[in-house]
What does this fold into?
Amino acid sequence: MAYSAIADDDVEKLRHRLAEAERALRIKQDKMAMQLRLAARVHSSLLPRPVRRERVSVDVRYEPVEEVGGDYCQVRFSDPDTCYITMCDVTGHGIAAALMATRVSSQVRHNIVHGCAPRDIVDSLNRFVYDHLMETDLYLTFMAARIDFRSNQITWCGAGHPCPLLIRHDRRTVEHLHSQNAMIGIMEDGLGEEPEHTLPLRPGDRLLFHTDGLIETADADGRCLGTRGLSEIGIQAQSVSLFEAADYILERVADYQHGPATDDKTLIVVEIK
It folds into this structure.
């Protein structure tokens, strides 16, 4: 009888400890969920608002696979005639990637305010990440583009980022703005021999800036949509207005997709007027 009493008492103590551990775990999970929601709000605040100006219209969409991710973009005017569009994709997801994206945003904004050339924005960002953040093992692809409405030109510099698409006003011609440089953070000097290029722009041209979550979307057979598939969707989207185009494109990408999304999707649609 004494043994049974002691055993029952131990069982009760164990149940109590388990209940306390479950309560502590729920509290920790609730705090983590609250921190993730807060991080998501901060991250979403980095997204640019739609732009409606005399010379250009811009729309933006962001679809994360988790509450926070490593995609980031900016649309910023250094003066009335100069528009910068920048985009990055940090390796991985979660709070660490979102923090890296936030730091990139601050670093890039400083260079835009000072009217730096796209190649200088990429070089400055690469050296900063290489010097200060290399031990994080977080790397990123990056694209910086500057649209000059005085000369009607776009100058871009890409660092391992998927190529933006320039869909001409004839609704048939698509030009790929390929990256010319290494990913950010993998080497001290990541600029290539021709780190930036320039092309003329005409009224009616559209630009699609995107992260690889779009072109790496796979169908039931595992075939990725790819740049060619996105180009075809972009041409089809010429039939709708600029501020309908982003949703149209993402809906067509979702139609192609088999199974749940595995990567964040960020899209900027630009129309030259």
In short: The mean pLDDT is 88. The two ends are 91 Å apart (CA to CA).
